[in-house]
Amino acid sequence: MATRESGRAQGGELEEKTDLSAETDAKLLQCAQLLQANQLNEALQLLTALEKRCRVGNDNASLVRVCEAALKACYEADDTATLLSTLKTFATRRSQKTAAIKALVQTALPWCVQEPYTPLPVTGTDAATKRDQLVEALRELTDGKIFLERERAQLTRVAATLREEAGDIHGASQLLQQVHVETYGSLSKREKVEFILEQMRITLAAHDYVRAAIVAGKVSRKFLAEESMYDYKVRFFSLLTISHRHEKDALALAKDYHAIYSTPSTLQDETQWMAALQATVLFLALSPYNNEQQDMMHRIAQDANLEKLPAYQATVQLFLKREIIHYPTPHQSELESSPALTEGDLGTHWNEVFFRRIIQHNIRVASLYYKRIHGSRLAQLLQLNLTTLEQEIAGMVSEGSLYAKMDRPADIIRFCPPSNPEAILSQWAGDIEELLHFVETTTHLIHKEYMTT
């Protein structure tokens, strides 16, 4: 006879709990006998009635056993339609217990998912169709249920993988973006980062670079700096290089490759760190001149590993010296053949940018030594035609990296900015102060000589 006891508190009253374990044992044994006689429908009818008694009686342990037995009976009978129907029926029962829904999903999950995020390998079109149907049914079942958010993430990623394998990259990307894994409390930090990296990869494969940048912003750089996250750090910045290469952002690419290079796991492999350091130097040279670029280039110049890359060390020194660089550089061919420049069919673009950066460097050097100079003379010094020179100077002035004024009728370029009255007065005051200091020092020395004689 079933025993009754007090259950959990709900609504101010105690729920009545019935122990149906003995009846469940007997009914499951009877169900097994019906299945041996190939009577699946009769067995399911028996389990359905027992499921209701366990659910109403608040016997969660027996309820979970009944739900698992019903699904396994359908799976072993290879009846996918009945399996999907039973799964939906049991999960959507009125006042169905959380434990029962979780048991249904976790029981069916291994039949379509290979841990952690791989679709279960199958042979044949029919088997693949059945697996895909089960994945979609489980995704629908887990939608909106916080206690199944881990399973929801697994199933969504598997569904995205299936769409990607079918050639629907955009569909896979949109599907994976539905999962806001950063808000899931049941996933560990590593699992969240891995899932976000997969979101980045699939959005980049779909050429959705704006969405990829948004997804990348969800990853904390502080987490990536931890020792256990080094592999994810390299993957993250490798994916960022794809996005920044599309944007043709040389400085961002230099930062990405330097982050890869500075990872301890990369420094242990000479092949990897050499490639990362070469790319860092190249994209630094291709970056527009600013304080950040110069600071990074000075830090790279002090790296001892750079001595093992003579061509790249020479390139860094060229851009740090206040001397005119002659084009092509001594190591031009080696730099242009670097895989970092030829990747993505952007070799021609980067070569043009490199030529412009050399011109801009030479103009900055000239502005340090000349307050004014004839344009034709400057073009001769830099081995440029006058039109190209004027275009580059105009571009640098517009960017704010250089002060210059061009008098085209007189063919004069002025690099010295005019001083305002406040600056002139401050300079005059400084000169007077320095002069008075010299007078005072001289007077002191004269008096000292008189006293000693």
UniProtKB/TrEMBL annotation:
<dbReference type="InterPro" id="IPR036388">
    <property type="entry name" value="WH-like_DNA-bd_sf"/>
</dbReference>
<dbReference type="InterPro" id="IPR040896">
    <property type="entry name" value="RPN5_C"/>
</dbReference>
<dbReference type="GO" id="GO:0008541">
    <property type="term" value="C:proteasome regulatory particle, lid subcomplex"/>
</dbReference>
<dbReference type="GO" id="GO:0005737">
    <property type="term" value="C:cytoplasm"/>
</dbReference>
<dbReference type="Pfam" id="PF01399">
    <property type="entry name" value="PCI"/>
</dbReference>
<dbReference type="InterPro" id="IPR000717">
    <property type="entry name" value="PCI_dom"/>
</dbReference>
<comment type="similarity">
    <text>Belongs to the proteasome subunit p55 family.</text>
</comment>
<dbReference type="GO" id="GO:0005634">
    <property type="term" value="C:nucleus"/>
</dbReference>
<dbReference type="InterPro" id="IPR040134">
    <property type="entry name" value="PSMD12/CSN4"/>
</dbReference>
<keyword id="KW-0647">Proteasome</keyword>
<dbReference type="Pfam" id="PF18098">
    <property type="entry name" value="RPN5_C"/>
</dbReference>
<dbReference type="InterPro" id="IPR054559">
    <property type="entry name" value="PSMD12-CSN4-like_N"/>
</dbReference>
<dbReference type="Pfam" id="PF22241">
    <property type="entry name" value="PSMD12-CSN4_N"/>
</dbReference>
<feature type="domain" description="PCI">
    <location>
        <begin position="252"/>
        <end position="420"/>
    </location>
</feature>
<dbReference type="InterPro" id="IPR036390">
    <property type="entry name" value="WH_DNA-bd_sf"/>
</dbReference>
<protein>
    <submittedName>
        <fullName>26S proteasome regulatory subunit N5</fullName>
    </submittedName>
</protein>
